[in-house]
Amino acid sequence: MKYYFNLCQFVLGILVILSAPAHIAMAQTGTFNRIYTIFQNQCATCHGGAAPSGGLNLSGTPAEVRANLVNITPQNSAAAAKGHKLVKPGQPYQSFLLRKLGNGYIHEWDGGNLDAAEGSAMPFYNNPLETRDIEIVRQWILAGAPQNGTIAAETLVDQYFTDGGLPPMERPAPPPPDKGFQIHVGPIFVDGFDEKEYLLKYDPNLSGPIEIKRMEAFMNQGSHHFILYKFTSTSAANNAGSGLREVSLFGENPLLGNGTNLVCVWQYGEDFRLPAGTAYFWNENTVFDLNYHIPNYSADLILPSNVYINVYTQPSGVAQKEMFSDLLLFNSPAFFTLPPGVHTLEESIYNNQQWNIWMLNSHTHKYGTDFDVFRLLGGGPGEQLYEGWFDYQNCQCDVGYYDWSHPPVRYFEPMYNLPSGAGLYHRATYNNTSSSTVSVGLTTNNEMMITVIQYTTGNPIPYVSVAAQNTTYCSGAGEVQLELAPETGGELAGPGIVGNVFVPAIAGEGTHTITYTYSGITAEFDITVAPPLATEPIQQTDATLSVAQGYDSYQWYLNGNPIADATGYTVVAQQSGAYTVTYTQSGCTGTSQAVQYIVSGFNAGTTPNEALTLYPNPATDVIVVNYTLAAATPVLVELYDAAGRLLQTYGNNQTQQPGNYRQQLNLPDGSNMGGIYFVKLTIQNNIYAKKIVKY
Question: Fewest CB atoms less than 10 Å from the CB: which of 284, 358, 502, 600?
Fold first, then answer.
């Protein structure tokens, strides 16, 4: 009987399949067919038939529906005016379909908030798509909107939405619309302990010639690099595929030459502000090839990686010189090998025109231990221009090692003049600590040797600059001296400028741009004027004093004198007196209200130091607390850490008889638990506290 019933079910199923429309008769496979099914369930009622809504028909076969979407200009004039397509392969944020489906999941800075003229979010009559489905649509577009096959990201997206993973990086704000725009690549999902490198063709949809004076990159911590290339011609751009293209050594590899020129390289987040009078030159035909290399160092959590490039523009014709960039690869030979051990590679670099060098940087993988660049002299190294062990941005000092993942960047301001034919000489040292030979390759387990350079050509232009010691000042600060180059002969302008100084009170609160113009070249510097900080009250809980959290730094004072190591938002009072704390934020300093704290003795003639003793101090694991009682008294002994957290108690306010007491307390275990602790002794209403140092 059971067999007969199952047979009937099977026959009935076959009849249902045979009677279904041809384009949904059999189960579909592949990422687009998954998306197609979503459209049939939630969109085709309105977007189908003889007169589909918005002129978009989603009711045909999968091939017909894709043809109605990919590279099709929207009927909505507002979206069309932005240069968007219904689906623009490789560019999800220029795809009107994704923006219409976003429903709050697509960020407003990616076009997730539709303009009034772009109509309502979709589906209009059905529930919004689930965020997982929206992400699948985005990843399909990012992958090039293929008709067939399952994109690599689909499984990762499903796993991420089911099991979770690493959180996305914090989204940086784009430039104001009148100052520039933002390029966003991602999210690109990378599996645990995996490493991916992609190229992505990107059209910024520029309406005409434009100059770029500044670019700032934000990327996931641990990213290997992000490189911005510019196609040399429209045909070169057309020859590149749309969507993510995985890089390989002898396949999609920009270092082998694919009709692109380098624009900029980031090996970590960096704000490139070009020298005054220079800029990158772009126009309406500019198309980029974006190169992102992302390792995921988590063992089992998926990483949603993103890159954001804030691009700051100015009208064409402002700059006097175009900024050029180049990757100078070691070429003797290009595909070198490194057996285990220490090795040094070096070679000469020749320039066939005058270079005015603005920036030098270096690139190796994890076996790199040093990198130096010199001016060429007699076929060898001459004047040293770059030292891989030197920190040019922070301490201006030799740090004693080469950080291959965050190599130093050296800027020359004024630019360094290298006459035509003078040449450079670069040298890199490697220590192959593995047991096998390492060759040139794309992953961090392979190696590279590249000098990164940015320069102008021809005769140099004057170096013009304006700066101040800080970028933020309080509104009540006095006159701010400005650093000018050249020191005289130029013209200062901007809010708060009086003569050659900046006065925050005159400029008012907010961010202001100061300009200095000399010989037709205008340098800029942004200064923020911050409001004064409030006078915060101090809260008291027994001997623990605290002030509001969230400031950049703190310093506690007793009777006007700084308390050593008291640099958090809490402190445990150990002596009687007036306690205050200063705190800083955005260049401003505030001072709290004062609190009087009184420590009293056990009995006449007993001082706090005599009442409570601790040893050893400093300590490692155990301390001994000694105290004396002159009469029967309730006693409580407590151990606190430097943040004011209670760790251990003894006594519980039980009455103890007169006499000398010795109590042992255990300090926290663990190699990372060293630091400052406090012992607080409470006798009735009298409080005694002392500091203990654990090492």
Answer: 284
Question: Tokens at residue 137, please?
Answer: 């649509």
CA distances 557 to 29, 364, 599, Å, are 70, 48, 17
Helix (H, G, I), strand (E, B) or coil at 524: strand
User: For residue 578, what are the β-bridge partners?
Assistant: 596
Within 13 Å of residue 353, how many CA atoms lie on the same side as its CB? 8
How far is the C-alpha of 679 from the C-alpha of 615, rounded, in Å? Answer: 11
The torsion angles phi and psi of 243, rounded to 5 degrees, stand at 90, 175
Per the rule left: phi > 0, alpha: psi between -120 and 50, beta: everything else, 361 is beta
Decide: 394 and 448 in contact? Cβ < 8 Å.
no
CB count within 10 Å of CB 348 equals 14
Classified as helix, coil or strand, 610 is: helix
CATH architecture, domain 324-457: Sandwich (2.60)
Give 112-165 pLDDT, tens digit per residue. 999 999 999 988 888 899 999 999 999 999 999 999 999 999 999 999 999 999
| Average pLDDT over the chain, rounded to an integer | 89
Q: What is the pTM of this model?
A: 0.76
The CATH number of the structural domain formed by 180-322 is 2.60.120
Q: What percent of the chain has pLDDT over 70?
A: 93
Element (H, E) at 361: strand 355-363
CA distance 199 to 162: 28
Six-digit token string for 614: 């601790």
Number of H helices, E strands in the chain: 10, 47
CA–CA separation, 142 and 388 (whole Å): 37
Phi, psi of 34 (to 5 degrees): -65, -45
DSSP assignment of 180-202 equals: EEEEEEEEEEE-TT-EEEEEEEE
Q: What is the pLDDT of residues 303-327, one digit of tens each?
A: 999 999 999 999 999 999 999 999 9
Instruction: Give domain limits for the chain.
Output: 30-163, 180-322, 324-457, 467-530, 539-597, 608-694
Give me 194's structure tokens. 């995996």
